[in-house]
Design brief:
alpha+beta, 3 helices, 33% helix, elongated
Length: 172
């Protein structure tokens, strides 16, 4: 509406003035005006691309997950990193691994589905019982512009953060 009521009439007025007077300054004003509008539009598109949250589909959840040590540092997060990880496979299976470094000690199995109540799909777990305390509830998904992470509410550890990634030994 702003475009129709303000920009187009202003452009037509400047074109008429420029056609009548043939002054270069009017043509330059018209050119810079439209160059500024196009520049603002492009800037808006770039800012939107850089700041919009990632919209997740079920396929985005497939992959390997490790404990996200970016939020909490120290021996507790290192211990969790070395003892918990999981994988969601394309057949909608989830395998939660209790580990001792690279060695898998125990595996908890289940299936996943997603629900789309919002613009982005949310992960839902159905685990075989008994299951590990980290998996007693569905995770909360936090999205950024380029990635996401999952937070599980554990009755023993409180929040446990996971991100997509391959497990690698920690540098000590």
């Amino acid at each position: 509406m702003f475009l129709i009521l303000n920009i187009f009439p202003l452009t037509i007025i400047l074109i008429v003035i420029w056609a009548i007077t043939r002054k270069k300054i009017v043509g330059k004003i018209l050119g810079y005006f439209w160059l500024g509008l196009v520049g603002l539009f492009c800037l808006g598109v770039v800012i939107k691309l850089l700041t919009d949250q990632k919209v997740l589909d079920k396929e985005d959840y497939y992959g390997e997950y490790i404990v996200n040590r970016d939020y909490f540092h120290g021996s507790q997060s290192d211990w969790q990193y070395n003892n918990f990880r999981f994988e969601i496979k394309e057949n909608d299976s989830i395998y939660f691994y209790l580990t001792d470094q690279e060695k898998i000690v125990k595996t908890y199995r289940g299936t996943i589905t997603t629900t789309k109540r919002y613009s982005s799909e949310r992960l839902k777990l159905k685990m075989e019982q008994p299951t590990h305390h980290i998996l007693t509830s569905n995770p909360t998904t936090y999205r950024g512009a380029w990635s996401f992470y999952l937070v599980f509410q554990s009755p023993k550890f409180n929040n446990v953060y996971f991100k997509k990634g391959k497990w690698k030994p920690l540098d000590k």
